[in-house]
From TrEMBL:
<dbReference type="Pfam" id="PF08352">
    <property type="entry name" value="oligo_HPY"/>
</dbReference>
<feature type="domain" description="ABC transporter">
    <location>
        <begin position="7"/>
        <end position="257"/>
    </location>
</feature>
<dbReference type="GO" id="GO:0005524">
    <property type="term" value="F:ATP binding"/>
</dbReference>
<dbReference type="Pfam" id="PF00005">
    <property type="entry name" value="ABC_tran"/>
</dbReference>
<dbReference type="InterPro" id="IPR013563">
    <property type="entry name" value="Oligopep_ABC_C"/>
</dbReference>
<comment type="similarity">
    <text>Belongs to the ABC transporter superfamily.</text>
</comment>
<dbReference type="GO" id="GO:0055085">
    <property type="term" value="P:transmembrane transport"/>
</dbReference>
<protein>
    <submittedName>
        <fullName>Peptide ABC transporter ATP-binding protein</fullName>
    </submittedName>
</protein>
<dbReference type="InterPro" id="IPR003593">
    <property type="entry name" value="AAA+_ATPase"/>
</dbReference>
<dbReference type="InterPro" id="IPR027417">
    <property type="entry name" value="P-loop_NTPase"/>
</dbReference>
<dbReference type="GO" id="GO:0015833">
    <property type="term" value="P:peptide transport"/>
</dbReference>
<keyword id="KW-0067">ATP-binding</keyword>
<keyword id="KW-0547">Nucleotide-binding</keyword>
<dbReference type="InterPro" id="IPR003439">
    <property type="entry name" value="ABC_transporter-like_ATP-bd"/>
</dbReference>
<dbReference type="InterPro" id="IPR017871">
    <property type="entry name" value="ABC_transporter-like_CS"/>
</dbReference>
<feature type="compositionally biased region" description="Basic and acidic residues">
    <location>
        <begin position="394"/>
        <end position="421"/>
    </location>
</feature>
<feature type="region of interest" description="Disordered">
    <location>
        <begin position="389"/>
        <end position="431"/>
    </location>
</feature>
Length: 431
């Protein structure tokens, strides 16, 4: 597929040091953005979507060099902006505009709307007041407001109207690229669609390249030509919007999709529910970062239990291995005098006994060890008895179709020949 990219992000990385004490000794690293690559064609609208905390905003500010990336390159119109000096950066900033989530804090309450919209023009050297005013009035009308709104103040506008003003301000310097970070998340659901269709309209009218960041799959579906799905600092799936929505090829994408409310609940497919919190980016899980929450995580060869049970076993395995399991607390909560294997089993929703005899023997022994107070030994035992390639090695990014890629072991024929079938993953395209 021949796209002519305006923006090319390659292996973008933003790590924040975690420091401690007066001497600011570095004790860790937050891997907020950890090797992200994608591009945006001219006149194309691309989405970046993922749960809160996965690194979307950090990717945004780093790719515009509002903060310095710690690695990778960003090419804009063929030039590496990570090499830019201040003057070049100022010219770049005119061509690349940003729209933020919170329309209320985007405007100085003492400045009229007209002054706010004209500010980028002034900064970039348009000194003629009359001309500035003409540009502002024209822009306000283009975003669905009226020319006379220029003399009003931010408090007189609703959130949706303020976001329209933000669009006008971004357009004022005639940019090539607009990056909107959660532009409708702070707005009432009833007006989100209006603001999105405004963004869609100005994008095509001005021929802009557009990056839309959102935690909401429904929002990106409405306007994006292509989508990148982000999880814990990495992109796990990317492709044309229809393909990613019609034939998602990463269990995380599937989970995000099943959380979109559907008008008709009877048409809701077998949704994959996402449980647990996003892990801490200062200590990402080994292997595939999603394996600690993935409903489709690959089981050990020959393990004869239901997938949900395997998921629960792996939860127990991870918690015990991290030392994050407290059988004593479970006993207290249940008002029992002392910890028991049964309480731990119950807490993890594990059937008694497991249908697989060998697995049951291992589990019973590990639960006994944990209840006796040696959680670390129980963890080691479980890790050894219940291996998964998902925790052992990081998956590669693989092509599903010419322009659709996913990073999941279910696509590796050597690791999981048939396991993905139940999820419609790793199989030939269905429609
Ligand atoms: P998103 O926009 O997807 O919600 P963010 O990019 O805001 O995610 O944050 C990604 C991760 O980076 C989070 O864990 C956040 O706590 C961390 N983070 C963001 N900014 C900083 C910072 N200045 N210092 C340390 N950690 C940060
Ligand atoms: Mg954000």
């Amino acid at each position: 597929m021949s796209r002519d990219p305006l923006v090319e992000v390659e292996n973008l990385e933003k790590h924040y040091p975690i420091t401690e004490g007066l001497l600011k000794k570095q004790v860790g690293t937050v891997r907020a953005v950890d090797g992200v690559s994608f591009d945006i064609g001219r006149g194309e609208t691309v989405g970046l979507v993922g749960e809160s905390g996965c690194g979307k905003s950090t990717a945004a500010t780093s790719m515009l060099r509002l903060e310095e990336p710690t690695g990778g390159t960003v090419r804009f119109d063929g030039e590496d902006i990570t090499e830019y000096d201040d003057a070049a950066l100022k010219r770049f900033r005119r061509r690349a505009q940003m729209i933020f989530q919170d329309p209320s804090s985007s405007f100085d309450p003492r400045m009229s709307i007209g002054e706010s919209v004209a500010e980028p023009l002034r900064i970039h050297g348009l000194n003629d007041r009359t001309r500035r005013r003409a540009v502002v009035e024209d822009l306000l009308e283009r975003v669905g407001l009226s020319a006379s709104d220029a003399d009003r103040y931010p408090h007189e506008f609703s959130g949706g109207q303020k976001q329209r003003v933000a669009v006008a301000r971004a357009l004022s310097v005639n940019p090539d690229f607009i990056l909107a970070d959660e532009p409708v998340s702070a707005l009432d659901v009833s007006i989100q669609a209006d603001v999105l269709s405004l963004l869609d309209d100005v994008q095509s009218e001005f021929g802009l390249s557009f990056l839309l960041i959102s935690h909401d799959m429904g929002v990106v579906r409405q306007v994006c030509d292509r989508v990148n799905v982000m999880y814990l600092g990495e992109i796990v799936e990317s492709g044309p919007t229809e393909e990613v929505f019609g034939n998602p090829q990463h269990p995380y994408t599937k989970a995000l999709l099943s959380s979109i409310p559907r008008p008709d609940p009877r048409k809701r497919g077998r949704g994959i529910e996402l449980t647990g919190d996003v892990p801490d980016p200062s200590n990402p899980p080994d292997g595939c970062r999603f394996h600690t929450r993935c409903p489709a995580v690959i089981p050990p060869e020959g393990l004869a239990v239901a997938q949900e049970t395997w998921r629960s076993l792996l939860d127990l395995r991870s918690r015990a291995a991290r030392g994050d399991l407290d059988p004593g607390a479970l006993a207290d909560a249940a008002d029992e005098p002392s910890p028991t294997p049964a309480l731990v089993r119950e807490a993890f929703d594990l059937p008694d006994p497991l249908p697989d005899g060998e697995a049951e023997a291992t589990l019973a022994a590990a639960l006994e060890t944990a209840a006796d107070g040696d959680v670390a030994a129980a963890g080691e035992r479980l890790v050894e008895a219940f291996p998964t390639p998902c925790a052992r090695q990081a998956p590669e990014r693989r092509r599903v179709s010419p322009d659709h890629e996913a990073t999941c072991h279910l696509h590796d024929p050597d690791l999981a020949p048939d396991h993905g079938d139940a999820y419609g993953i790793g199989v030939a395209e269905n429609d």
